[in-house]
Amino acid sequence: MTDEVILQVKNLRTYFHTDAGVVKAVDGINFELHKGETLGIVGESGSGKSVTNLSIINLVSHPGRIESGEILFHGQDLLKLPENEIRKIRGNKISMIFQDPMTSLNPYLKISTQMIETIRMHQGLNKEQARAKAVEMLKLVGIPGAEERVDCYPHQFSGGMRQRVMIAMGLSCNPEILIADEPTSALDVTIQAQILELMKDLSKRLGTAVIIITHSLGVVAGMCDTINVMYAGRTVEHATTHQLFKETKHPYTQGLIRSVPRLDMEMSDKLYSIPGVPPNVVDLPPCCPFYPRCEKAMDVCKKGYPAVTDFGNDHVCSCWLYTKEKETVK
């Protein structure tokens, strides 16, 4: 990781206007991504992780729309670019691996067809050069017999191999940023470890910045440089990985950490789970959305959303435990 900031997300708000009301899927997110950095975005389902990253590459579909904010890629606001300019960046400079490789890969087309199309579109290579590049990328992600297997169909690969193919496709245009949406959720634990180690290794070798979206702090513990914890469309805590685990501040983050199975647990110990369920984000009241589930909730938590408290060392948290009552945000 270097000091060079390649992506800045400022006060991003993405809402879905439905018959039931306004769903504030992303409600004022801020973060930076440095060259070569691996950032983990963590939270339960519905916290706004995926919508945040779909907003970055402008893939939010109706009835959703980006209401406000800035997404600065090398200082250029992606939200102000026309669609044809966004297409030159999407899949080229900023690439995304979606959650389920079987639904992302076209089952009727060979892997070679799908990879060559992307490479030719963004790299300007001819068909032979693009095929050679596709084979090279499959070798890079550890697929044996890449010269022959490049002409296989998706169903001829195992789940772990399909995920490797998606990583190869994502890296085939040498992107500066790779976004991985739950890259290991459908895989068993052994393959999970292999995929995470592969992504970590490739990030170091290629200098690619990585954003990993996951619901598990256990996944990102040994993978990420920094972690963004999201709840109900907002960042509740942000810190370096070391700092987050050493001095966890927000009760929600503490609950996520306690929910991770530990090797030193007794067999009789019951695994902790955060009480209650995530809130309905349709027309949320102007208060801390976590208070109904929080073991440390106070009366002030029901009155407004707390401002951000800066603890230094790039560690910030939004919680009334560390905020004065008058410091609220809209």
Can you lay out the helices and strands and say which pair or pack?
Layout: E1 5-18, E2 21-34, E3 38-42, H1 49-56, E4 64-73, E5 76-77, H2 83-89, E6 94-97, H3 101-104, H4 111-123, H5 127-140, H6 146-149, H7 159-171, E7 177-181, H8 189-206, E8 209-214, H9 217-220, E9 226-231, E10 234-240, H10 241-246, H11 251-258, E11 305-306, E12 309-310, E13 316-317, E14 328-329
Parallel strand pairs: 3-8, 3-9, 6-7, 7-8
Antiparallel strand pairs: 1-2, 1-4, 4-5, 9-10, 10-13, 11-14, 12-13
Helix pairs in contact: 4-5, 5-7, 7-8
Task: Describe this protein with a few key phrases.
alpha/beta, 2 domains, 8-stranded mixed sheet, globular, 4-stranded antiparallel sheet
State the distance separating the first and last CA atoms.
34 Å
Number of helices: 11
Shape: globular
CATH top level label of the largest domain: Alpha Beta
Average pLDDT for all residues: 89
Using only C-alpha atoms, the radius of gyration works out to 21 Å
CATH fold descriptor of the largest domain: Rossmann fold
At the fourth level of CATH, the homologous superfamily of the largest domain is: P-loop containing nucleotide triphosphate hydrolases
As for the number of domains, it is: 2
Strand order of the largest sheet: 6-7-8-3-9-10-13-12
- What is the SS-derived class? alpha/beta
Percent of residues in helices: 25-40%
The counted number of beta strands is 14
CATH architecture of the largest domain: 3-Layer(aba) Sandwich
